Amino acid sequence: MSDLVTVGGLPVHPLIVHLVVVVVPMTFAAAFLMAVWPRFSRRFGPLIAIGAALGLVGALIAREAGEQLAPVVGVSADHLAWGQRAPWWIALFSIAVIAFWLVDRGIPANRSRPVWVHAFAAVMVLLGVMAIIQVLGAGHSGTESVWAPLLQ
Question: Is 151 within the bounds of a domain?
């Protein structure tokens, strides 16, 4: 196994997956607040953008580590499918969060957001929902593949 797969002799995949499972939903909650509350966006936008990027990097590392770990422990087709899709949806969500913050920070505090920015915020939120669905699907199928045989 390569260094990417293990840390201290333990597989890195489940460790990184926990990062994704925490960061992506937290980023979604913050992005939702950013979408509906301009002041929140201005104040915390940079942190939310960093969270989005961290979630994406974590998802990419988790996928790579999972692909390297799969031949060693085996993997269900369901988990493989969810794990392949999740980084793409997280990438779309992350790009939307960062783009929304960059656009929104340019709108003066004494002006309302244009209609197209509200529409973009709605798209960002929908992409976040899709990213969370993918994370939950990958997490559930991965948990089943690990724990179901042990609990029978």
Answer: no
